[in-house]
Amino acid sequence: MDIQYVGEHLLPGKIGQFFIVLAFGTSLLSTIAYYFQTVKDKNDTSWRQIARWSFRVQSVAVVGIIASLFYIIYNHYFEYNYAWAHSSKTLPVEYMISCFWEGQEGSFLLWAFWQLVIGNIIMRTAKTWEDSVMTIIGLSQVFILSMLLGVEVLGHRIGSSPFILLREAMQAPIFKDPEYLIKYIADGKGLNPLLQNYWMVIHPPTLFFGFASMVAPFAFAIAGLWTKRITEWIKPAIPWALVAVMVLGTGIIMGSFWAYEALNFGGFWAWDPVENASLIPWLTMISAVHVLVVYKNTGHSYFTALFLTLISYILVLYASFLTRSGILGETSVHSFTDLGMSGQLVIYVLAFLALSIVLIVFNWKKMPFTEKEESIYSREFWMFIGALVMTLSCLQIIGFTSVPVINKLFGTDIAPPLEPVAFYNQWQMPFAVVVAILLGFSQFMKYKKSEPVKFWISTGVSFVMSMLITAIVAYFTLFNGLTTIYGEGFKNTNDFNWMFLVLVFAAVFGVLANFTVLSDAIKGKFKLTGSAIAHIGFGLMLVGALIAASQNKVISINTAGLDYGSQFDAKNKRENILLWKNEPMKIDKYTVTYLGDSTVGVNTYYRVNYKAFDANNQVSENFDLYPLGQQNPSMGLVASPDTRHYLTHDIYTHVSSVPKKETEEEEHKPHEGHNDDEEYEKPVTYKVGVGDTIFFDEGKVVVKGINKNAQLKDIPLTSNDLAVGLMLDVIANDNNEITPVEPIYLIKNNAVFSFAKKMDEFGLKFKFVNILPKENKFELVMLKKPGKQKDYVIMKAIVFPYINLLWSGTIIMVIGFLFAIARRVKEFRASEKTTGKKAKQTA
Amino acid sequence: MKKTHIVGIVIIAVAIAIIVSTYGNSSTYATFAEAKESAKEMHVVSHLVKSKPQHYDPIKDANYFSFYATDNKGGECKIVFFGTKPQDFEKSEQIVLTGEMVGNEFHASKILMKCPSKYTEQGGDMKEFSSVKKATAL
Hints:
Chain A is of the alpha+beta class.
């Protein structure tokens, strides 16, 4: 029998589901129609008309899906699983957008949306390439939309719909109640507090735009092989490859900026598998860009260019398999959980892999393989080497990130590296050095053949100048010059590695060489502007990342801690300090004071004041930071840092532990009169016998025995009354001091009383509430005050020197990409015009 | 020999080096007994012993937290973690520890704990805690 549920809004979900089916259907139709247009007669364009219109309808449908989902979230229709799982009533509107990408379904939706945007642009601009390229993009779209279907076919559920109802998603007895929605579902689970950050509003869309745009160069390559235009696809593919690299790169760096601003792992890159998954396709695509340019200019390295272009998109799919299948669960903290779609994801990856392999095999003989060797004094040779080095660095990242996949496939039990950050850095630094050197000196070469003497002179000059500049840069970033940031008394205790110097040199050399090219470009050779600027940005980024990652310093070193012996101290710097409210403490050159907290909504901000004094004891710096701590019911303490930005460095602060606050739930409990226990944490009941021990953070409680002749001060006892004391010893951990406590259980005139006893030093309170004669046990209730009476905060503060080099480097790199894209688009337009003219002439 | 061949050989050599270092050197998850024998840093999958004392007194030392845990073979060991006590630690279902044995204590530099999520039936939330930030040790 069907239950008539009360208060549900089923219409928006039905509309949304209709749009999903419509979008899927039209994507399939447009793909099929474009396929036939590509293989059939060119003069009859009826298939193309069908394909275009169905693609447009599909675009409208996807926007319809997004609108329906937003409507549901905006109106708090928690009968829908997606709204319930990812939003709540208190969520501000701007973060409702973030709900879209907290769940897998929403992030697929985002991906589908961007792929449509790209499809629409290609439909208008690709001209002779439209039919074949759009077939491939359409196919990719079919796969992505199938992830949203949520329809059962032959007993298999295909995809997972965002419009599924809560009662369909979960089996629970409450859903037998027609009024479950009104009675039990008062609010949604809410958005993960870490995602409630403005960077989380723009980082995922950028990242997914990057992922989605990877399909364009892939589609051009496949289309080229398919329609036997084996080499012609390269020209139109280059601008798209640049777009993909630029957007994905921006997305990645936004993610690392978010991590730095909102997460408390104390850095901007942690080599987490999820981060790696986005970096892998970026590395292969940037290699592809270089080899594509090599082929365009010299006709060399065709196969490498093709291979890298194809593999990049396949790696995008592999990366989304890694992050979405739940396979990273053991190694990563923030991948998605499995939605039961891993099979579908595997099919998606394998389908595109198979398509690529088949087309390569069939066209193998038609591919241009040059017999002639490149000269060592040619730019293309070194660009090619550079691309290979980047591919190798990518291989290393794939190898380690895939450990869980290998474990699953072969049943092995390999553990991830113990110190992933140190491990990856060690591997990646030499690659970075080689790449930085290559992107420097290859700029002094010309395609095909350059003049060795001229090359050695310009390289030599840059080399010597780089030595000088490196010395200056290294002094300020790795050695004593750091005192300009940390203050005169600073001693650099960070580990030193010679590789740092080498990398700084390589990056400086790269930047300098590209500055030479840039100055030529300004004089009139505009063509190379884009690459020069992008390379300068990349070099600055390397230096910035190296300095900020290797020279950052925890300044909140605790010197007040207990002494656990020198062996402990050497290995374990105590990086958290405890600040009592209003008691200033000196950390590094700052006098730091915790001034109290304020609560806004679910967030608690801890106000920490920093003051620095100059030689004359005048305040030279004075600022407040508000690191955030949220007592999240499902996640515990969620801490988000606050950072003071200076031009040369940042001061980064986050709370690592705070006294537990009463949660809202408890506050809103109806008060039964005034309760003396309010200031305590929740009472815990123990069943104890004589000799038992109860542990708490600062010590333990031992049950010594029973006092049958307990006396109460103001209450005279008769022979009918029973008063029993439970003799407890509270033993402090640090000095083993014993404090006896004796709560009393009293039966007088057939009524039961329990006389609580306090132990103030540890904020404890004991109640003896019952005697269980059969078991020979006693029931003891123990209450404990949170932390201690005083207010405090435990925090960590880190100084990141020169981190702005990293951010500005990336911005410069993006500007460089923009220049390069503009140039390549112009080239493609020009070539289309000439082929158009030729076609007319032959006709 | 052609230059491309030389390049090819170098690339293959580096690729093999990567594969060997990935899978040849890698450790597997260990038990406390194995960690004691090897005296190297290791991963241990363990469970909190709820009946044994936990020590964390932020007022004395905010960076010392000790507790007892059992590994998958049932071996029990005292764990010392030089950092703050993770919140809701008592609720943890499984703890992956990274660290080494020092005497009879296991000194953990990282705790990855899996908590039962209040809402989702399957899976749970993973949380990671590090004592010393190792990003500096390049």
